[in-house]
Amino acid sequence: SGYARAQARDPVRMGILPVLDTLPLQVAIHEGFFERKGIQVELVSFNSALERDAAMQGGQLQGYFGDLLNTLLLVRNGIPMQVLTVSYASRPGRRMFALVGRPGLDAPSAAAVGSATVGLSNATIMEFLLDALQERAQIPAGTWKRIEVKKIPLRLQMLLSGQLDLAVLPEPLVTLAESKGSRVYLTDGDLDLPLTVVCLRRDLLESEPSFGAKFLAAYEEAVSALAEHPERYRELMSRTCRIPPSLQATFPMPAFPAPGLPDPARVDQVQSWMVLRGMIPERVPYGNLVWRSPQ
Amino acid sequence: MRFVRYVAALAAIVLIWWILSALFGGGNILPDPVQAFSAFGASLGTPMFWNHLAASSGRVLLSMALAWAAAFPLGIVMGSSRKVDAWLAPFVFVTYPVPKIVLLPVVLLLFGLGNLSKVLLISLILGYQVLVAVRDGVANLNPRYLDSVRSLGAGRLDLFREVLVPAALPHGFTALRLGTGTSVAVLFFVESFATTRGLGYLIMDAWGRLDYRDMFVGILGMSLLGAALFEAVNGLEHVLCRWRRARIR
Amino acid sequence: MRFVRYVAALAAIVLIWWILSALFGGGNILPDPVQAFSAFGASLGTPMFWNHLAASSGRVLLSMALAWAAAFPLGIVMGSSRKVDAWLAPFVFVTYPVPKIVLLPVVLLLFGLGNLSKVLLISLILGYQVLVAVRDGVANLNPRYLDSVRSLGAGRLDLFREVLVPAALPHGFTALRLGTGTSVAVLFFVESFATTRGLGYLIMDAWGRLDYRDMFVGILGMSLLGAALFEAVNGLEHVLCRWRRARIR
Amino acid sequence: MIQPAATGYRKDSESETVLRADDLSKRFAANGPGVLKSVSITVGGGDTYAVVGPSGCGKSTLLYLLCGLLHPDAGTVRYRGEPIVRPHPEIAVVLQDFGLLPWKTVQDNVALGLKIRGVPRRERRQKAREMLRILGLAGTEDRYPSQLSGGEQQRVAIARALVGDPGLLLLDEPFSSLDAITRERLQHYLLEIWNRFRVPYVLVTHSVEEAVFLGKKVLVLAGRPAAIVEVMENPGFGDPSYRDKKTFHAMARALRRALDRAARGE
Amino acid sequence: MIQPAATGYRKDSESETVLRADDLSKRFAANGPGVLKSVSITVGGGDTYAVVGPSGCGKSTLLYLLCGLLHPDAGTVRYRGEPIVRPHPEIAVVLQDFGLLPWKTVQDNVALGLKIRGVPRRERRQKAREMLRILGLAGTEDRYPSQLSGGEQQRVAIARALVGDPGLLLLDEPFSSLDAITRERLQHYLLEIWNRFRVPYVLVTHSVEEAVFLGKKVLVLAGRPAAIVEVMENPGFGDPSYRDKKTFHAMARALRRALDRAARGE
Ligand SMILES: Nc1ncnc2c1ncn2[C@@H]1O[C@H](COP(=O)(O)OP(=O)(O)OP(=O)(O)O)[C@@H](O)[C@H]1O
Ligand SMILES: Nc1ncnc2c1ncn2[C@@H]1O[C@H](COP(=O)(O)OP(=O)(O)OP(=O)(O)O)[C@@H](O)[C@H]1O
Ligand SMILES: [Mg+2]
Ligand SMILES: [Mg+2]
Question: Which residue intervals define the domain ABC transmembrane type-1 in the entry (chains B, C) (predicted)?
Fold first, then answer.
């Protein structure tokens, strides 16, 4: 099925999730950067990746924000997604995901926790991250019992009420858990991984050759606007990125990387992991996966 | 008196809630009811709340109407005609348990991201319930009533109008009453995509932020919506099934 | 003959499915039915599938039994006693529309991460349906039957056993029939935490991996489970409501 | 008291056959006991039949067959030459259990047949009210059947049958729940209708006096499966003061004897 | 034919008061018309009452009040001195619409009263079968009520009332759907029970002959609201061959006149 956009004048619909990483997209819409570049973009919010993917497949969206893993799955299923830019990559000193302990768990380090339960959701970037974190911390694979809890708020509640010993959580919930007495054991900070990306359908990019460049330019503008006046967008962040009320005033405004493609080696690392788990039959060539400006 | 009892019920619920929230979590799992109600009271003054409520009510009402319009007559036909039932029942029974959630991509494909998809999904789920209840109810109808009206020379249409519809109404209303709960639950599901309006969205969004105040504003709003729908169905039944109040001895 | 009609219904469904999948998506949205059925057939030979099916069936059956045990008698009491109903009905109608999903954290806290929480959640949702249906059904009972048995000197318990229970049974069964659909839907919800067994998990997990083969194995399995439950309820009704087959003229 | 209504009772020539049933047989379960066997009956334009017989012998079943609510296992029923496979609007039936709809008021129950025939609302309501008045039920128009006494319900059922100016009446113990005086009033009323309009009827009754007073021919149904064991011509029939005549009592005695014989299985 | 059953019919002394109702009044809707006004009745140990009156006058309502299924707006009912606020297991009732449970077989319907009193399964089944046989219903034990004719259903209801050896019988038109012969058989059967065990009863009927044959006292209920307008002593009652006596016919004529007077509202 083609992408359902009757006319070039109709807005390009992007499916997003209410998470921090989408802030640059929200800023770009808020400030009218896309319009100023002469393109129409509309953000359509979804509660979870499942529904967003359903709409993607139903041909209702022409682009989306999501994680690298999800993008590869969509490509495998014949939906021609191309990565325009990384929206968030882990960087030292910053954290987007973390392994958090329940309040009162007083092991000084992850290695000292010993046998424990850890909540996560399978077949998502979280599982990939946990594998990577565990490997780096040299904690043997079977040490922790993994418990699938798909709904993130539920996972946090179970952690806070002591029914899970550990949980993989995204920001800003990591900070929230910390404020309720949780200890943060491992973070994605220095893994140097491209975690989330912004994609558009290849057929859109090909039929409107200038669209990709305009989109990226607007996106870049939003990233620098955020870097220049972070506090200006605090209210927007609170409204669109599910910041818990107690953190709305204090949560540090995240910094986003300038637009750029993911590091091929890192993409390869993710793909190997997926091939190993049978999620994709074979690697997607890097060149097919990313969009490069024609010039 | 009815009002007093509703207040008593509410009071009991609040008490249980209050005990639970005091016992565990200290607000991590359940906020305390005083907070929740004061937040609810405050939000009643904001257009935001009414906006969400209006969106959800509109969707639910439209879905209920659609479900009724399609399933009530079909249920009557299946319940009253063995021949039709023999062929349609397997179809219904095989498709009934298919979780409708998995039809999401197809529904989105056919009907887009807008309210139409949402309304159709609710009415699909609700419609099955009305269908099964009405079919069962009509199948249990005392055949003497049919005989009696048939003896007056009634055709299919007359039987439908004079016997089957009034006999099926109470069953349809029971299904609708049950359906108010189901619809409200399905709201969660359909308001989790492509909308930022509706109580379902409000609750899920607040839950994602672990913002208990807003979450309970949503929950209380939804309970209110459910109770209102419930009473509306009761009222409709009261008006349309007048004979049911006539039994005294 | 019944079997033939089930096959016909299945054939019709497969045809519609096949057309839809051919028209759109070419397998992106809906796999073609041949693929889906062959995957299903293949998985029938694996213990993995039976494992999921057993987990889900066990949860659903237990929940249905629990829901029935609690709600059927309560529904009869509410339907037959105006006094009890006057006080309990508001309680039920106020809590009925509360989306049970939000109770999840409380239920987990009280009953742990295991199957107990899952079973309790399903039976909570199902129980409400049985309760409302039975209550309505009993309230509509022709009072002559009660008079007649009361005139024999029957006490509350006799009325319960000889009149109210048999009169409520068909309504309870209708609710249970409706409930098979609801329970299957709720499976999704309860099998999305703390388990890697169950058809709900299978579907959600496959969906998350965008693995349509596995997803449709789960969906077909669930439809099968639903249809089996449905027929089981029919069978039970056939046995327990024998008088309903006696009407001839 | 009786107004010829707009649609008009039809007055058939005495010789015309209104209803003809040939060789009706019926059993309820495929291998159950037979209920009726080879019952034939021909109702002419000026005929009235009273059917008597032991309880449970098949009288109601016969009426169900005659009006097309049940289908015979063998045999045929024709109304004015037309085969009866489903109820005919010109044949009015009073069922033994009244068959009133609990969800309709008394008035609407009575007017239902007219409504089905498309009589406008005002007219049918007016006719229904009038018929209720005649049957002594004025004032109950807006109640529901469950709010009436047994005898009142029975009269509503009679009103419903009579209000439509039927071409043939089938009555299953229509006066059984009525007190003697009301019963006699309604017996006379039925006779009056017959005398003026010659609407043929088949009346099932348990009362010997009623059978003799209201049946031009009296059928005795008996046996298992039941058959017509006796057909008595009743020449005195039609006279409103028949009850006071000697011939009436003689006839009643004869019928009682016939019933006794039937009961003894002769 | 009748076996004194295990629990035994109690034979009250003739003078003992079994049932005593004082000044009963009833209306159905708070501001609706009164149905009964100041009705009093005293049933002694050897008494039998027949209640007659126009259709819809309130006879069934009276029985409902006497057995405690309805509560009077004013007045009291006492059974052997005990105030009746709910039905008493020793008072057996045959309701006008039979009141059989559709979900129980004929046999289980008859045995229900015994079951409620805790009679063991075998014994109650045996008694039920016996009673069904007496009433001419052998062979219908395992059918459901919907598979019976009207008269058969009525006999099942009578069987249910009689099987429990009641201390008082309240019968609402119990023989109305029966053919003359069955009806007479059952009338005799009731009289036989009375003659042997002196079970007092109150019988509502529309048949003047039945009232005179079966009522030691005959009450005429009439008016709106209804009151007892006549109490007739019936000295000939109790003789199985009463029907053939002159006094019987004189009594019947007197009752008919009383009913006429009542109907004319005197
Ligand atoms: N539930 C009710 N609501 C209002 N009126 C009622 C109700 N039940 C009975 N009535 C009225 O009360 C009066 C007495 O009824 P009842 O059944 O006692 O009469 P009855 O003497 O037994 O008559 P029948 O001989 O026809 O059985 C009737 O006029 C009837 O319409
Ligand atoms: N649905 C049924 N299934 C089986 N047997 C039935 C059914 N309906 C009626 N019968 C039987 O058929 C016979 C005739 O019934 P029917 O109702 O015609 O009798 P009837 O002559 O009208 O009796 P009554 O005078 O008591 O009304 C009865 O023995 C009855 O038990
Ligand atoms: Mg009959
Ligand atoms: Mg009565």
Answer: 53-237
